[in-house]
Amino acid sequence: MRMRSGLVVATSVALAATAGIAPAAATAGHGKGKPVIRVIAKGLDNPRQLSYDDGHVYVAEAGRGGRKCVGAGPEGETCVGLSSAVTKIYWDGGAWKHRRVVQGLPSGAAPDGGFATGVDGVSARHGEVWGVETYAPPEAGIPTKPPWNTLGKLLRVRHGKARIAADITAVELKHNPHKASVESNPYAVLALPDGRKIVADAAGNDLVVVSRHGKARPLTVFPDHDGNQSVPTSLALGPDGKLYVGDLNGEAAKPAARVWRVDPWSGKILGWKSGFGSISGIAFNDDGDLYVSQLFAGVVTKVSHGKRTSVKVPFPAGVAVDPYDGKVYVSAWSVADRDGTVLEGRKTPGGQVWKILGF
After folding, report:
1. Taking all residues of the chain, what is their mean pLDDT, rounded to a whole number?
2. Sequence-separated (6 or more) residues with CB below 8 Å from residue 121
3. What residues pair up with 301 in beta bridges, in sequence order?
């Protein structure tokens, strides 16, 4: 069962890289002009991709699994349940608050609730909210009746419900664009201004485009590089109107991951930036600066006019930028549920979302 593939690796490196980072509000450095961190949401279950929309930050919570445990592969047991959600974070009455706009969706996690996968991607545009659910094959022993039928699907979130908008995994099963093997893990989604949705299938190593009418088809296949598969995990629309896609290829000790530049209509790969650790989130500000979350390196990196600067964030996942004031939001402790998980014998804090000022 591949529900947690790509997350339960390099944890000792990651823990060393993030050791000593405060789980509560803290400065990212000392002295004038240094970025400042604020924790705006706590108690989240494996927070992953973020999306900023009209003053709100949406976060995909992959959940904390459940009581039914299946499989006993190299990653250990996966415990499943209906604990995944999409949550809205907003400023109200002089404080940051958050509430789930949809919940009760499928989730698979380690027995302690860490390293979950479920609704891993979210994208909001003008109040319309979209999410994507991971996939589990029938042989995994996962239920199939609703809401388990949302696995592998693009979801439209509205009025507290998640309705199936397109079958992403069906594209992989029919076309198998990468040809290495038939595997699917819809992991990130991006709603485009023209109404199309782009979904990154991390296990399929490709992008799927969904029309306004719900028709899904292959758009782009990413080649292997640096001895590994690409594994696309994150999406952003650049100020040049092109798609940018972060991949997981790379570790903290070998920063080989890339941010790909892709034509959003033809799917043609136009180039890439390299030299990152495993990428779990990307975003742009209005000036064209690129922000890259590097999951196991424990940093968010800003790329501005060829110069790279970083802020330490423990297990960062999704990243989003307020287009009006440039403030940066990032999921922290993204491999932990609300109670934290155990790594190398140490308990982590629970999932959070941070706001970074001055970065």
Report:
1. 90
2. 48, 49, 60, 131, 132, 186, 187, 188, 189, 199, 200
3. 292, 310
Cα dist. 105→63, 98, 246 in Å?
8, 18, 26
**DSSP state, residue 155:** E
Non-local CB neighbours of 246 within 8 Å, separated by 6+ positions: 232, 233, 234, 235, 257, 258, 259, 260, 276, 279, 280, 281, 282, 292, 293
Q: Are the CB atoms for 96 and 56 separated by under 8 Å?
A: no
7 pLDDT band (50/70/90 cuts)? very low
- Distance of alpha carbon 331 from its chain centroid, rounded? 9
Q: What is the pLDDT of residues 93-128, one digit of tens each?
A: 999 999 999 999 999 999 999 999 999 999 999 999
What is the reported pLDDT for 75? 66
Q: How far apart are CA 262 and CA 28, in angstroms?
A: 33
pLDDT, tens digit (0-9, with 9 covering 90-100), for 311-336: 999 999 999 999 888 999 999 999 99
Q: Which residues contact 107 (CB under 8 A, 6 or more apart)?
A: 45, 62, 63, 64, 65, 66, 80, 81, 82, 83, 84, 116, 117, 118, 119
Q: Which helix (H) or strand (E) holds 14?
A: helix 11-18
State the pLDDT at residue 29: 40
- In the DSSP assignment, the letter for residue 228 is B
CA dihedral 172, 174, 177, 183 (to 10 degrees): 40
The predicted structure's pLDDT at residue 184 = 97
Pairing assessment for the beta strands 56-61 and 269-276 based on DSSP bridges: unpaired
- Give the largest Cα separation in the chain, rounded: 56
